[in-house]
Amino acid sequence: MSIDKTCWVEISKKALTGNIDSMRARLNPKVKIMAVVKANAYGHGLLEVAKIAAEHGVDFFGVNNLDEAVRLRNIKIKTPILALGYTPLANLKDAVNHDISIVAYNAETINRLQETAAKYKKNARAHIKIETGLNRQGVSPQDLPDFIKLVKSKKNIEIEGISTHYANIEDTTEHSYARRQLENFQQAYELFQAAEVAVKYRHTACTAAAILFDNVHFEMIRLGIGLYGLWPSKETKISAYERKIGDFNLTPVMKWKSIVAQVKSVEANSYIGYGCSDFVTQNSRIAIIPTGYYDGYDRKLSNSGYVIIRGRRAPVLGRICMNMFIVDVTNIEGVRPEDEVLLLGAAEDDAISAETLASKIGTINYEVVTRINESLPRIVTD
Ligand SMILES: Cc1ncc(COP(=O)(O)O)c(C=O)c1O
After folding, report:
1. Which of 10, 59, 93, 104 is most solvent-facing, going by the fewest CB within 10 Å?
2. By the 8 A CB rule, do 228 and 154 touch?
3. Ligand 1: which atom is nearest the Cα of residue 232?
4. Whose CA is nearest to atom 8 of ligand 1?
């Protein structure tokens, strides 16, 4: 059966590799790059993105869970992988057997990892997450000395890394909280040194931190949103400009597309869509787009979004439905069934950015792209 190409995502290999190169140019050559491909590579397609990034020489992959990690191993990706989310104790055997590093911050995880590795006669690798101020995952400072003693006693666990995550790096141009977190991280590292626990990778920096501050790079950075050519926030852009890092280039990787399913005329003074939520006051042409909120086209774009058809903007009329929505093409010449419809991405002389959609629906660019339904085809271009 041929693929159902009514709604799909195109990803530009050129943009993706260009974004990796931009980040490389920003870093000391010794600093490794972890490509964060969790959440279906931020909606871009886990396997498609990982293949390109692996070929382009990223040093590590960051996934959320072992399911994602094993899918990478199944397509013969040999690059080291770190599961950034919580790994249930019962699944640690998969980490050991597929050679996947895990993030650890519970004694239960360390104990079970040691038993599991012993059972399969292997060594396991863990990255200890340090709580420095986000108050999410991580070992709290008061628990760290005992935790270090525990991990040091487990001879078949390699402490491959220690890490932390910044709480307030994207949302602000004032970074004193991040600096405090960095100090806390450095104090934690000193405890590892004092206990003579060797640590191969210290990693703290997400995209925003990596762009803005050299002293957070350590041995590795975790590149998420920047890999996909999106800026973490407006504040990060402003901070980069203020810090004279203005020449840092990112190119959006994704184009999200659909087609026209039907074009028809409606008379002046007609209601459009569910709830009669729109109304045209003039004779109009409308087009039906076979994409809906199931696909990730947010219902809050009802009566407010727009798409690009034949290079022109077509506003959304009425409600976004589960599998379709309606646009006004009155002012666009010659629209026909199966014309291509741009939902997100760059057009020749225009664009619909993830940030534009995010501002219309009250969220951030991260959420717009990650929520595009995983079942839609991802097609690699150039
Ligand atoms: C622990 C961790 N590291 C790195 C990242 C990547 O962050 P960004 O996408 O801002 O680069 C994330 C993203 O959510 C994360 O949770």
Report:
1. 59
2. no
3. 10
4. 224
Does 254-352 carry CATH code 3.40.47.10?
A: no
The model's pLDDT over 210-237, given as tens digits with 9 standing for 90+, comes to 999 999 999 999 999 999 999 999 999 9
Domain locations along the chain: 13-242, 254-352
Q: Is 232 in the pocket of ligand 1 (CB under 6 A)?
A: yes
Ligand 1 pocket check for 233: Cβ under 6 Å: no
35, 54, 263 from 20: Cα distances, Å = 9, 11, 42
Instruction: Please tell me the residue having the least CA distance from ligand 1 atom 1.
Output: 165
Q: DSSP states of 48-66 as a string?
A: HHHHHHHHTT-SEEEESSH
Find residue 340's DSSP bridge partners. Answer: 259
pLDDT tens column, 151-170: 999 999 999 999 999 999 99
Whether residue 172 contacts residue 235, with contact meaning beta carbons closer than 8 Å, is answered with yes
pLDDT single digits (tens) 305-332: 999 999 999 999 999 999 999 999 999 9
Predicted confidence (pLDDT) at residue 1 exceeds the cutoff of 70: no
**Tokens (6 digits) for 164:** 């932390």
